[in-house]
Amino acid sequence: MEKGKHSVKSRWAAAGADTDKLRTTSFGKDEGRRSQGRALDSQAILLLAVQGLLGIANALSGTFLPIYLWKASQSLALIGWFNFSQYVVSGLTFWLAGKWVKEHNKMNSLRLGVALSGVFYFIVLLLGKSAVAYAIPLGMFNGLSLGLFWVAFNVVYFEITEPGNRDRFNGWAGLLGSGAGIIAPWISGFLITANKGERGYTIIFTISAITYAIAAVLSFWLKKRAANGHYEWLHGIRQLRQKGNPWRLAVPAIIAQGVREGVFMFLVGLLVYMATTNEQKLGNFSLLTSLVALISFWIIGKVLTPPRRKTAMMLGTFAITLVILPLFWPLSYGTLLWFGLGTALFMPLYIIPMTSTVFDLIGRDEQSAKQREEFIILREAGLTIGRVIGISAYLVVLPFVSHSPQTVPWLMLAVGAFPIVSWLLMRNFLRPQSREPLKR
Questions:
Q1: pTM given for the model
Q2: 20 to 30 Å CA-CA from 294: which of 10, 60, 180, 358?
Q3: Is residue 432 part of a domain?
């Protein structure tokens, strides 16, 4: 990180021509102390509400979409290719939509992303079981909607938070996500089990589409934020070519985060269903793990401050790796539940410092903050590369699963240990007192 004698505060007009000005602070020790504990404003709360509704919609249907596709196709490879196409298109959308978000209206990108997510589930409803024949196009369409939403969301999130309250925002985001995960999948599991055949899935996909529509309407209360500057298409590549640039360490750390996400985001739920063949059991699994995650996010979000990030992230990375070990016992609902509860308990120690520190790095000085869109896209490029690596590993080992069931836990341990790499690369950024440029 760059060294400076004073903290930097930069302001841009945010709503209309000259109202609702944005504060962006550097990743400096003194400013971090002054802003610790600063409350979230009304726009941050509204952004959390939109994210919460998306969390509910995704928890209702996203948890069960891989199950729906697998039941119709009996193909684990198909699920892999669906996610592969989704990750690739989402990453490309981030890069291409960055120009729209930076130079035009970022809120329209966010709203379109929400709306297309609703359209995605409407299309799945229309296709029914024949959706398996269009798995890759559906994955691409969902990737488009996710890319449009998250590129805008991340920029707005950066603009309305700062180092001292970023952990609090991420804590609340995790809390809302966990709250959605407590009740929504349980309801979905109950509805699917109670309504045999296609009807249960039709109900939950319909509810999700409606929830996305509500989120799109609510997003209109988010204030329009003025465009600023010109989009630099190759900004990320230039950062990585500069010696001593902190992003040369941060991007590999983000890639390591993405490797785990690329597999765990869909495989865990699929394994629970395959072990139980019961959607209600999957709903119960999500309820229990999300309840633990809610409590953990609430506690850690309240007590975690920038000076505590290094220790918290170290504990979190090793803990979420160790909890994979029960999966080497015969794969069952019980061993998966132990794994799920352990992950839910310790994940906030890893993900909150990781996310907050990367965004603090984006706002470390005025020039960096002015190019926040490009840096956010660089972050997403890292996540996309990592997710593609993870899903590629899944597709490579898949043919061996039928001959050696132990392949699955070994795969999960291999990709699940990558957060340790994230911590090793990020640990120098996690010390508030360390402001010297990092050499590589």
A1: 0.82
A2: 358
A3: no
